Amino acid sequence: MNDRLRADAVEPETTTVRTFAVRRDDDDLNTFADTIIELLEHDGVLVDLSRHDRRADLIELRVSTSEPRIQT
Amino acid sequence: MRNAIFLVKNGIGFGHIRRALLIAEAILRAGQLRPIVISQASSLALYRNTPVRVINFPLLHRVPSAITEDLYTDLLNRLLDRLDPAVVIEDTYPDARYRRLPSLADRPRLLVMRRLDGLSFDQIRQRGDFAHYDQILIAQDRDAFRQEGHSGDSLAAVESSGRFTFVGNIAHTPTDEEVAAARSVYAVGGAPLVVVNGGAGGDQMPDGYGDRLFTACQTIAARLATEGHPARFVLVTGPYYAGRPLHDTANVTVRRYEPRLPALLAAADVAVIKPGNNALSEALSGTGQLVLVPDVSFMEGLDEHAHRIAAQFGGVVGAPDRDSLEPLIRDALGRGPRMATLAPSTTSVDAVVRAIHHHARTAGAPEIRPKLLLLILKPPDSIEPDKLRAQLPESLQNAAVLDRHQVGGVVSDSDSPSALTAVVDVDPSAMPPQEAVDKGVRLLIQTTPSPAVERWLRGRPPLPALLVTSAELVNACPGSPDVAQRRITRLLRSTATTVVLLDLRALPEPAVADYLATLGDWLASQPLHLVGMNAILAEQATRLLMGGLR
Asked: How large is the ipTM?
């Protein structure tokens, strides 16, 4: 993964929802976008797309799960 | 509920995201819009406890594959298209990537802008990058902005274009309880508290700023400890810190990230900080002595800013090494509380929230502006300007009357609260440009181009710049207002705005009222607005935002 700081305790814990293979034709970007929009229905959700493999061929879609994020 | 989208990215720091979250959380509390922060950041630490929805991308310009960078941009566009934002808010640096997204075309767009140095502001303005925003909210007060050394053109654009609003500093101000809690945790037994912070810890240049700052402070703390000095140091490195490992000692606490940093800085007896906007604001809200350690900065001019702050609030400026910092920290520890503090701005976030709501509400009903005409009447010699103004028909109430009794002939907006004026065909020998500006003159109206005026302006350019516009001179013919009508029609056929100086001196005094009534009735029936001087001034100032030099 691209960020060595991820393991640091200051970062919120996130879990993988799915991945997206950049160079594969059968991975549909519209479906990927729809999944993200669905995740946004939850209050205070943190969606992280910043993780990818070393060549940035595989993107991870992650959401925060364990942090007790403040709700209003 | 419609979405308010915050587009923000942070390279080496946290400032843009912290500011965006402060505003987004206020939008969430107001309940009229659903805020979503779309960021580019390497650390998610700031998002741990916010109730705001967040989508975080990597820093797109650092993605190692151009194909993937394009895909991320495409994905961002599709997400924005689906989110259909009522308003978009960006922070400080206009981003061409966002500007080119089809999903953001024609959306109401706001820019919240913290301080920039004068040269950088000029560069952004001259590139035309400010022109894409409906409103630019400057997170400074007017006096602080003027101290940045902005150019005359930038000052004129900010003052007169109508696009800029000063909202005051935007930063979290800790409560007294938060400050007391921070002291109880870190200043055990009432020990003097030295807080060291370099923002989020990233280095602007590969010069090891963070490494040098924190290593120096750890060494200084060790020397004080051996002398039995009671001071305790807290080193808040930020998650992007990549220097040598630091470790806790008897009088040093190391924190990679401290969510209570605003309170900690306000609680400090000595704050050793890189004077970025957030850390500086938080330190200034307390009474600790300031040791400002500027880093190479991006468009912030931190060296000059640090010296200005030290002069204004008290404090010293040092370099990130032991030789520089040790005497400064020792001296600061020997001083009492700093007397000058930064009063918290209680209205700045509210002002931004109001602007966001305003632009979100008006998004659905844009209006096409009619043509604009500034009509300046030059009275007959036998009629005093005030008398002519008093006898104007209702339809010409917005027309300006040239006051020939003032130097150069002055035009002012009667309803203008700022009492700014324009001068028609200025006489360069009458006064220097700065004196004219200091008297409230902002616009020069010329019926013929004047090399003498150009030399006058370029020789001693005033602050703010005097803007220049041309006017068409029309001589009123007795009994024939249609001459003026045809000229105005012709002028506005190819432009949206024009200025006409209508010379009434050829009219016999008894004919003036009828002439003006006929002209006024005709103007009222045309698709145009008679506007005052400020509208023309705004037009000229807006040109300074369009990327072209005057």
From this structure: 0.89
- Number of A/B CB contacts below 8 angstroms equals 113
Report strand pairing: B421-424 vs B410-412: antiparallel
Closest Cβ–Cβ partner in A44, A49, A54 for B57: A49
Residue of A1, A4, A5, A54 best to disrupt the B interface, most CBs of B under 10 A: A5
Written as six digits, the tokens of A22 are 């950049």
β-pairing verdict for B400-401 and B410-412? unpaired
- Minimum mean pLDDT range among A2-6, A7-11, B276-280, B445-449: A2-6
| Entry pTM | 0.90
- Tell me if A56 and B48 make a contact (CB, 8 A cut-off): no
How far apart CA B540 and CA B534 sit, in angstroms, is: 10
Nearest beta carbon to residue B36 from set A8, A40, A50: A40
What residues of A are in contact with residue B83 (Cβ under 8 Å)? 37, 40
Q: List the domains of chain B with CATH numbers.
A: 3-170+348-363 (3.40.50.2000), 176-333 (3.40.50.2000), 371-543 (3.20.20)
The pair of structure tokens assigned to B61 is 């310009």
Each residue of B363-373: pLDDT tens digit? 556 788 899 99
